[in-house]
Structures are given as structure tokens and as C-alpha cells.
Amino acid sequence: MSTPARRRLMRDFKRLQEDPPAGVSGAPTDNNIMIWNAVIFGPHDTPFEDGTFKLTIEFTEEYPNKPPTVRFVSKMFHPNVYADGGICLDILQNRWSPTYDVSAILTSIQSLLSDPNPNSPANSMAAQLYKENRREYEKRVKACVEQSWMD
Amino acid sequence: MEDSLNFEDIPIVWPKNLPQLKNIDDRLHCPICYNYMINPVISTACSHNFCSRCIRNNISLKNSCPICFIDMSDGMLRPNRCLEEIIKCFQPVKSYILKSLVDKIPITGDEHLDENHPIETTKDNILPCSSSASGSLLDGEGPPKKSSDLLVPSFEYQLPQAADKLDLDKSTPATDTQQSPMASCSQSRKSTSRASVHQQSQNTTHIIKEVPCPVCNTYMREKLINVHLDSCLEKTKPAKRKPMPKMIYNLMKDQELRKKLRELGLNASGDKTTLINRHKKFTILYNSECDATDPRPVEELKAIFEQEEAESRRLANELRCAPAKVKTNDVRKIEEENLQYLRNNKESYDRLINEIRQRPTLAVPSLRLPAEPIPVQVKSEPLKEEHNSEDE
């Protein structure tokens, strides 16, 4: 017997495979459907371009009524990403809706890379550089991009 | 992976030139669980539709519509019978429509699909153009009913009988002006019934005669049948099941909660949180069943509920056995763990990267709604304290 959360995740996986959004991909880990690995390619025309950023997504049995925990495993330098890889994004917290699926989550994170919000920083150094010293910010991001190839 | 996917109602690729068909199919799926809606309900606040159980579950956590975020409570949900009927009709013919489209066989209307034996929806029987003759479409799927059977709506079998019997026990033949609705109903079906003939033969005999009740088949005196029939029909008509009221759990003592659960015939053991959760979840299941046209017996719901609870207990135990992760704020430690994780999952990540690279390069982002980036709005206050020591 399966549970609603697990059935829904199988459906998410199916949708992601049938209609994959550009530049993102994800799949359940081999032994646990409640933990997924995902990859987001850095969006074009941003300092994150060409990066292959790795993430984990952890679901609970309350999915989709409660959002999963999404975390970058690759090192990130972004105003809205915590040092532990945690992401400060409204749709993963108080603006979560059970109508979202893994595709929606990954595309939202991808668009967060292009449009950071420096006004609610999770990484104040990144936020400050983003606002005041864009060249230094881009340099730091580029370092992350290069490191992401090595992971 | 232990969970096997049930392909039965997973949207299969609809022809691209008929996006409306996919759209119709999508509308019949619940936006929360992505299955065909079960007991669909419509919100009177915003007209969005969901499975009754899905939306009730969600409302128990958050009082807003999952689609438009408008305020919403479970009192605003009404069964959407029309949608329910459409889903019921569409599901069994869906694969047939698809097959017809793929096979380019015109739908002639000669074939009657047996609702009880829907054609299996698997990719295999959709894609190959196995048969050219339309008649062989249903081969091996169980014989279709005779068309004559299907053309006669089933209620025809019941109503005239009951109406005839009503007429039988009228001591005086009813005149056209004084007919009860039931009698007039049988009048309109005179051609199919022989009520009037029976009436006359009945009226000529004044011997006390026993007649069977058309509902329960008990024999009784003619005089009594009308009274009996009223109560008998009332008995067989299922009363609309009332939803269970909401409890204010915070104001309840453990003892009261246990009593409530025992009254429902549910397990009354566990701590307060367990008791509250159990009562809350059962209320959701019970109330969503109240939205069904034909609610299942409460005993069946209890069995389902207990099975679900046992399953989640089993999964929770499994989790407990897994080594608990130690949360740390030490950035160096986190980085180490991350590197370790990346090493252990290298194969999995490489597969994902290759998968993206192998996609057609000109792939335009799909226009499917849920996959669209949701307007991003970063929380105004950070949830955790900042860690930026590593940036120095």
C-alpha cells in the first residue's frame, strides 16, 4: 500500500519526465522516493550561466499539503541562499500551495537565480555586493559556477 | 522503488493538434492530488474544484484556496454533481477516444462501450495501430452489452412497477383531475403498463386480498399498502449523511477526546496530539464522504482509515530507525557533509545533468501552467539567522 504523498510524487516524476522545463531536472533517489536529487542549470544571461547546481528535495508524508525542504548541495553565492544551502523563497514557506509540483519548485528556484531579492537577505554579504558592487558579486558567483562543475 | 506507478488515469499524450482535449482532461483532474477528482466539490468563494478529501485536508492546515489564495472554509464547499458525472462518463471512453484518434478510425457510434469494462489505458494499446476494423476495437475487452440493453435507461424497470402497484390499491379509480403525482406518472406510461386493466379487475372483486409491497415484497392487505409503502419508501431512501461538526480540540480534555473516538468506534489510545490528529483526519474522511452521491458505509470508512493509519505508523517507524541527522550550524561541517553527499550521489547527479544536455537544444519552455515559474516574492524577513561568516 502506498500513501497519498508517495502517489503524488510518482505523478510529479512522471510529469517532470514527460514535460521537462528547460534547464532543470530531478529524480527520486534510488532507495527513497521521499528524497529527490535535482539539478538546475544557471539561467542564460546571468552570472550563474553554465553552472550545474545540485540540490536535494526532502518531502514529508504531508506533501503536497506541506512544502518540501529544498537545499542546494553545491556551494552557492546568492542573496537568498543560506550558508547551509537552504533557500529563502516565499513559495517554499508561507506562499506554498498544494497545487505546485516539483517542476514548479525547480523553475521557481531557477528564476530566483536570475532575480535575487537583496531586501530580504539570507546571505548579507551577497546581498550587499549585489546592491553595491556588482562586479565583485559576479566574480564570487563565477567562482561558484566553476566549483559546480567539479562537484 | 517500492511504489509502482498506476498508469490508469495518467494523462496520456493527447494529439497536439487538439489541445482542447487535453484541456478537458486536465480540468477533470484534482489540482492537489493530480488524479481524477473523487467526490468533486466546488468552492462557492471562487468556483475552483477539488477532490472533497484533498481540499478538506488542505483547509485543515490553511484557510485559503490553493489556486487563487482567496479565503475559504469547508462550509463553502458544495458537491459538484455535474463535474462528477462528466468524470464518470469521460474516464471509460477516454482511452477509446485516444485510440480512435491515433488509429484514425471515425467514431461511428455503433460501438457501445461497457462502462463496467473500460478499456485499459496503457501506452501499449494506444500507440500501435493494431486493428483497422472498428468492430475489433473491443476485442478481448469483454463483450459489449447488446445495444437494446443500453438504450433502455435502468429507471424504466423500477418506476412503472411501483406506480402500477400504487394504482392497484386505490379503492376508487382515480379521476384525471385528482391524480397523485405518482399516479399521473403511471398514466403517462400507460402504453407500457397495463395498470388500468388491473384496476378494473381489482375493483370487481371485494374479497380481502393481499398484495405484495413493490419495495420489500411483504404481502399485506390492500387497504394497508399505501401507508406501508410510504414508510417503506422512506426507509429505503438513504438519508443524506450529515457532516461531523468541528471540534475545538484545545478546549477538550484527553478523556473527552478518548470518549469521542470510542463513540466513533476508533482506537482511543495514544497521547493528546495523536488523539487530536486521529479525530481530525477521520472527520475529514467522513465529511468528504458526505459529499458523495452514494456514501460508503461508515464501517468501510473506518476500515480504510485504520489501514491508512497503520501504514503511516509503519513508515514513521522506518524513519525512526534511520539515523537522525545532526543539525549543525558549523559552516565547515555543513560543507564537508555536502561534499560527502555529492560524492555519494555523483552517479545520480551526472545522470540528471546528461538528461538535461541530451534534450533538444531548442526546447522552448513548455506553456503548461504548473511548470511555469511562480511569481517569486522573497519573504520580507529572513527565517533563519544569517550565516555569512564564511564570506569573510
UniProtKB/TrEMBL annotation, chain A:
Q: Where is the active site?
A: 88 (glycyl thioester intermediate)
The record, for Pfam families, names: UQ_con
Instruction: Please give a single GO biological process term from the UniProt record.
Output: proteasome-mediated ubiquitin-dependent protein catabolic process
Q: Which SMART domains match?
A: UBCc
Tell me its EC number(s), please. 2.3.2.23
Would you say which domain of life the source belongs to?
A: Eukaryota
| Keywords assigned | ATP-binding, Nucleotide-binding, Transferase, Ubl conjugation pathway
Q: Any idea where the UBC core domain is?
A: 4-150
Which parts of the sequence are annotated with region: Disordered? Answer: 1-27
Q: Which GO terms describe its cellular component?
A: HULC complex
Top-level EC class as recorded in UniProt: transferase
**What family does the Swiss-Prot or TrEMBL record give for this protein?**
Belongs to the ubiquitin-conjugating enzyme family.
Recorded protein name is E2 ubiquitin-conjugating enzyme
UniProtKB/TrEMBL annotation, chain B:
Q: Does the keyword Metal-binding apply?
A: yes
User: Do you know which Gene3D superfamilies this protein is assigned to?
Assistant: Classic Zinc Finger, Zinc/RING finger domain, C3HC4 (zinc finger)
Q: Which InterPro entries match?
A: Rad18, Rad18_UBZ4, SAP_dom, Znf_RING, Znf_RING/FYVE/PHD, Znf_RING_CS
Coiled-coil ranges from the UniProt annotation: 298-359
Which intervals carry biased composition (Polar residues)?
A: 172-203
List the pathway annotation: Protein modification; protein ubiquitination
Q: Where is the RING-type domain?
A: 30-68
Residue ranges of the region described as Disordered: 166-203, 370-392
Domain UBZ4-type: residue ranges: 210-237
Q: Which EC number(s) are documented for this chain?
A: 2.3.2.27
Report the enzyme's class at the first EC level: transferase
User: Which reaction is catalysed here?
Assistant: S-ubiquitinyl-[E2 ubiquitin-conjugating enzyme]-L-cysteine + [acceptor protein]-L-lysine = [E2 ubiquitin-conjugating enzyme]-L-cysteine + N(6)-ubiquitinyl-[acceptor protein]-L-lysine
Residue ranges constituting the SAP domain according to the UniProt record: 249-283
**Basic and acidic residues bias: start-end ranges:** 381-392
| Localization per Swiss-Prot or TrEMBL | Nucleus
Q: Which UniProt keywords apply?
A: Coiled coil, DNA damage, DNA repair, DNA-binding, Metal-binding, Nucleus, Transferase, Ubl conjugation pathway, Zinc, Zinc-finger
Q: Which family does it belong to?
A: Belongs to the RAD18 family.
- Kindly provide the name given to this protein in its UniProt entry: RING-type E3 ubiquitin transferase
- Which species does this protein come from? Daphnia magna
